[in-house]
Design goal:
The protein is an alpha/beta fold. The chain has three domains: about 190 residues, no CATH class; about 260 residues, no CATH class; about 200 residues, no CATH class. The protein has 23 helices and ten strands.
């Protein structure tokens, strides 16, 4: 009998549980999707190194999932407290009718069980189909082939989802039983009739609101000046001022808006603006702390998502320019009379997987440039301090160009070519700025008593990654009496498999040369490529995972608070109806109230994010020249999508509550 009643109650209350249920489903689906990433490797053609990167990603997501489960658990318990509040009167009626508390507890447990099972089934199904779509995203991140695409089911992800959400629902059940045990009958019958008192009057808000603006501006200026890399007193002070300013902003902002509207009587008394503003002011004053936390978490979500998206986009560009040769081996000592290639064993000499190779010297005297760029170019720092003058013979450079079918260089008399010897050609890097400054200003250098000037624009070609960041290509005859600084051997292989075989041979060779006097630096395209892929995957998945979970958390908290507001004010809406207000006007007032409550923390979070991303530019540029504008627009689209979904659910849920009383 009680089981049937629990099933009936669950069916009747399903529409009331819409936000709760959808949050559970989305939580389970996201949890499954991100924990099934490793299983998606079965449908992709990935290298051994990429497989290791996926294994590392799997471990990171496992640790992050514990944190995510904690966030989702908090949300579920928070949402459950609202729905228990709505059912206090119902539970009180059961007790008046003589139903024992143990039986009521059993009914609640059964309802929670039904809800948990339904959410797990629907969430796992949604996660299963979502993970198939996500496999395309994963393949793009790892640059894998999806020609063997089939539907993949991850038993490990299912087990984790059931385990974590089982623990969460057990906690929810214990909380409900504890609440039921402590509640008095009179409290159950009148649990929804508590009024909220405003904590601050409009007159006080007028004084506090300017203070919040001052604190926020001070926090922005401090963090922009200090940046986020240097964690010092200024950094800590900016966080404290920012948090305090946010709290005071929401504590006083709505009261100041009410005071401003009261001076504009035509607007204040138009339609139900008076009612809406008083409701909003009351709720904002009561929940100013939770709204402030939502704003700060939204700021973190926007920052994590936008910076993560931008970093992975830059990493994608780097992957396309990570190196033009499969191997570049540089020798730093004993270079005058030894050859890297000649020291290799016959096994490597006879390997037919090599397409072409070329060994060449890099010349130099160890001297820097003959000018101070701070004086010459008006820069903030001496760009020339980042490297010495390093020269490459024109014939060697053209041979390397022919290996990669690139345009060979032709040097007019008394000119040299500037080569940015780096795959990181971001406009923010010092080497980029140095190469650009040399070409833009036509800097002249002296080689064997011959004065040369820079030819046109520089070219970005990583021909010798283990050497200096900028190389100068000059005619061969000028280098006859210039000492050799180091040698570089560039190798092209016929394919990826051959490159992996040569990698194994080189590893074996150098493992046996550990006691040698040679000091060789091996730069492998595969190693650099796989390291970039691993970094890109970690950043992308972390940004998306945490960003979306934080956004959902914020939206759910605001949604529950607004649903609670609608439930608490049912009698007020009924009174408006009795006073002659039509339903359309009530619905418009409700829509405006929910919209303002959702927009307030979001707008301030975007302002925080603008300052935060500006302060993080120095850290972001460590990865490259990131298009922050594009990242912010993509993030705004995701935030508005998640936020808009919960806003509509909240409005429809609140409207249904109000419609029952009007």
């Amino acid at each position: 009998m009680w089981g049937k009643l629990a099933v009936k109650n669950f069916g009747k209350s399903f529409h009331d549980y819409a936000i709760y249920f959808f949050t559970l489903v989305i939580g389970v689906a996201i949890f499954y999707m991100f924990n099934s990433v490793y299983a998606q490797q079965e449908i992709m053609s990935v290298t051994e190194s990429a497989g290791k990167a996926m294994e590392s990603l799997r471990g990171m997501l496992s640790y992050i999932s514990v944190f995510v489960a904690g966030v989702l658990g908090f949300l579920i318990v928070y949402a459950n407290s609202f729905f228990m509040k709505r059912r206090k009167k119902e539970i009180g009626v059961y007790l008046i009718l003589g139903v024992p508390k143990s039986v009521v507890s059993l009914m609640l447990l059964l309802e929670i069980l039904f809800l948990a099972v339904a959410a797990l089934i629907v969430g796992l199904a949604a996660g299963f189909f979502g993970s198939q779509v996500m496999s395309v995203f994963t393949a793009k991140i790892f640059e894998a082939d999806l020609t063997r695409f089939t539907f993949v089911f991850s038993l490990e992800a299912v087990e984790k989802s059931v385990l974590y959400f089982g623990i969460i629902f057990a906690v929810v059940a214990v909380c409900d039983l504890f609440l039921l045990e402590r509640c008095q009958l009179i409290e159950l019958l009148h649990g929804g009739r508590k009024n909220e008192n405003s904590m601050i009057r409009p007159a006080a808000a007028k004084k506090l609101f300017p203070l919040s603006i001052v604190l926020l501006v001070a926090a922005y200026l401090l963090i922009l000046q200090n940046g986020i890399l240097d964690v010092n007193l200024l950094f800590t002070l900016s966080l404290i001022l920012g948090a305090a300013g946010t709290v005071i902003f929401f504590l006083s902002g709505s009261g100041l808006l009410v005071r401003w509207l009261q001076k504009h009587r035509n607007l204040y008394f138009k339609n139900l603006n008076l009612f809406v503003m008083q409701q909003l002011n009351s709720k904002m004053n009561t929940n100013f702390m939770s709204v402030s936390i939502v704003c700060i978490v939204l700021f973190l979500a926007i920052g994590i998502f936008s910076c993560g998206y931008g970093i992975q986009d830059v990493m994608s560009d780097k992957l396309r320019n990570v190196g033009i040769f499969d191997f570049s081996i540089t020798r730093y000592e004993h270079v005058a009379d030894t050859s890297i290639w000649e020291d290799f064993p016959e096994e490597i000499h006879g390997f037919d997987g090599m397409e072409r190779w070329w060994e060449f010297p890099v010349y130099g005297t160890g001297e820097g440039f003959e000018a101070d760029s701070r004086v010459l170019f008006g820069s903030d720092e001496d760009l020339f301090a980042y490297g010495e003058k390093a020269f490459v013979a024109l014939s060697d450079y053209n041979m390397l160009c022919s290996m990669k079918n690139m345009e060979e260089a032709v040097l007019p008399p008394e000119q040299y070519l500037v080569v940015l010897n780096s795959s990181a050609s971001a406009s923010s890097s010092n080497s980029y700025q140095l190469a650009k400054a040399i070409c833009d200003n036509g800097l002249s250098v002296s080689v064997s008593q011959t004065r040369l000037t820079a030819k046109g624009q520089f070219v970005s070609v990583p021909i010798a990654p283990g050497t200096g960041s900028v190389l100068l290509v000059v005619p061969d005859e000028l280098l006859l009496r210039v000492p050799i600084r180091y040698r570089t051997l560039d190798i092209l292989c016929t394919g990826r498999q051959e490159s992996e075989k040569l990698q194994d041979m080189l590893d074996s060779y150098y493992a046996g040369q550990s006691g040698s006097s040679h000091n060789d630096y091996v730069d492998s395209y595969l190693d650099a490529h796989n390291q970039a892929i691993s970094t890109k995957a970690m950043v992308a998945f972390l940004a998306v995972y945490l960003g979306i979970v934080f956004m959902i958390a914020c939206a759910v908290i605001l949604a529950i608070q607004q649903l609670s507001e609608a439930e608490d004010n049912r009698e007020r809406y009924a009174l408006l109806k009795k006073l002659g207000t039509d339903e359309k006007m009530i619905h418009q007032a409700l829509f405006c109230q929910v919209l303002c409550y959702f927009l307030a923390p979001l707008l301030l979070a975007f302002v925080h994010a603008v300052a935060g991303i500006g302060a993080a530019r120095e850290a972001i540029f460590l990865f490259g020249d990131i298009s922050v504008v594009l990242s912010v627009f993509v993030t705004m689209g995701v935030v508005l999508g998640v936020y808009g979904f919960y806003f509509l659910l909240t409005y429809m849920g609140s409207r249904k509550i109000v419609d029952k009383c009007i």
